[in-house]
Write a structure and sequence with these properties.
Layout: E1 4-12, E2 16-18, H1 37-40, H2 43-48, H3 59-66, E3 71-77, H4 78-81, E4 106-110, E5 118-119, E6 125-129, H5 133-144, E7 148-153, H6 155-163, E8 169-175, E9 183-184, E10 196-203, E11 208-214
Parallel strand pairs: 1-7, 1-8, 3-4, 3-7, 4-6
Antiparallel strand pairs: 2-9, 5-6, 8-11, 10-11
């Protein structure tokens, strides 16, 4: 059965997924470039995202590699797709990633404003969804068939799916930096009340990879297994998957 996943999403130690003052020149906000140190040197990032050889292996790379496995479609917020706000002024903006984005499957972008699909190189097609998160999820699951759907971000989009308990798996990489302000993932969310529990964590030199799960007891987190390469999962309450009241993208 297709699952909805968040993988390799990085937070600062104080819970921010991006710094303040995001711009075209500084899309991660002030200080946000320091979030992803754990990933950018890995073999997976170099091969899958920037198309280069080399890179590190080990636990960080294993988490990065797993984030791309069995993904049949993605969901992105509009801010994750690009810096353009309001009506699309033209058709020139096609994402941050050039002609061959690292997705290679259908990508569903949440927005208030209609736009025709964009066919890119390498199998990526961007579809623009104007009728909310539930519609985007339904379309993405149809496109993914038996594979999973991955929510790439940003923070506001993940929060919308968390509020509806639609996320099935979540892997957060907590980077040892402090941002102080920006986009906070958990602000106003009572995660224990929503049924979520931390069940394991894996520490590396550049991040702590957190494993959370919904609908389990509040027992202490289990220790890492082997060399610490533990898949982080976050099953949600399936009964809420068809709940009404889809939220509009911010």
């Amino acid at each position: 059965m297709s699952k909805l996943r968040v993988n390799a999403f990085t937070l600062s130690l104080d819970g921010y997924g991006a710094g303040p003052d995001q711009t075209l020149e500084n899309p991660l906000g002030v200080g946000g470039e320091g979030l992803h140190k754990w990933m950018i040197g890995t073999r997976t990032f170099r091969e899958m995202v920037i198309g280069k050889d080399g890179g590190t292996t080990g636990s960080d790379d294993s988490f990065a590699a797993r984030s791309f496995e069995n993904v049949g479609a993605w969901i992105l917020g509009r801010n994750m797709f690009g810096p353009v706000r309001g009506e699309w002024p033209d058709e020139s903006w096609k994402g941050w990633w050039g002609d061959n984005p690292p997705y290679h499957v259908p990508v569903f972008v949440l927005t208030h404003h209609k736009r025709a699909p964009i066919l890119m190189e390498g199998g990526t097609t961007f579809y623009f969804v104007t009728d909310g998160i539930h519609s985007a999820l339904e379309q993405a699951k149809t496109a993914a068939k038996d594979k999973d759907v991955r929510v790439g971000g940003g923070v506001a989009t993940i929060r919308q799916y968390l509020k509806e308990s639609l996320i099935d798996e979540m892997h957060l990489a907590v980077s040892p930096i402090l941002l102080g302000s920006g986009e906070h993932l958990f602000a106003g969310l009572d995660m224990p009340k929503l049924g979520y529990r931390c069940t394991s964590q894996v520490a590396t030199a550049d991040a702590t990879h957190v494993h959370d799960r919904a609908g389990v007891s509040s027992a202490p987190p289990s220790p890492p297994v082997g060399d610490g390469e533990v898949l982080n999962t976050f099953p949600a309450h399936k009964a809420r998957a068809a709940a009404p009241g889809a939220r509009r993208p911010g």
